[in-house]
Amino acid sequence: MEIARRACVLNHYRKEKMRPGATTLEAFADFRDWLKNDESAAREYENQITEAEVLRFLKEPATNNISSPEMLYCSSSSGEHFEKRAKELRASSNIVDGILAHSHEPQLLETV
């Protein structure tokens, strides 16, 4: 859920703090710099986003592709998930089929 939260935070940050037309990548870089320079303020901003907002972000048609199940599956980097994903993908006939098959497992959003 932490990756979905960060995507939601970045979406809010881009809309609220950045110039019109700023990209998600620009928001990511700017927020990363803010964390580096003033972590307490950046974390305070991040903590304002509720779990309900994150879940709405995941389901909203305009934003759900930002954090699709496939994206979440591929981008999670926790040690346990990384090892599980590597094992699953090695066992798949090809990587794309593996991502599609395993990214929609119910426990994914609970562990990410």
Major sheet description: none
- Secondary-structure element pattern, one letter each: HHHHHHHH
Estimate the strand proportion: under 5%
Helix tally? 8
Number of domains: 2
Helix content: over 70%
Identify low-pLDDT runs.
108-112
> How far apart, in Å, are the first and last alpha carbons?
5 Å
Shape: elongated
- Radius of gyration computed on alpha carbons: 15 Å
Brief sketch in words of this structure:
The chain is mainly α and 112 residues long. The chain is built from 8 helices and no strands.
Q: How would you describe this protein?
A:
The protein has 112 residues and is an all-alpha fold. The chain folds into 2 domains: 67 residues, no CATH class; 43 residues, no CATH class. It is 71% helix and 0% strand. The chain has 8 helices and no strands. α1 crosses α2 and α6 packs across α7. The longest helix is centred in the first third of the chain and has 16 residues. It is elongated. The termini are close together. The C terminus is likely disordered.
